[in-house]
Amino acid sequence: MSQVNYELMSDRELKQYLLTHRDDKAAFHAYMDRRHQRQKHILIEAGEIDDLPFNEQVKIVAERLSKRFLQD
Question: Which residues, at least 6 apart from 49, have a Cβ–Cβ distance to it below 8 Å?
Answer without folding.
Answer: 56, 57, 60, 61
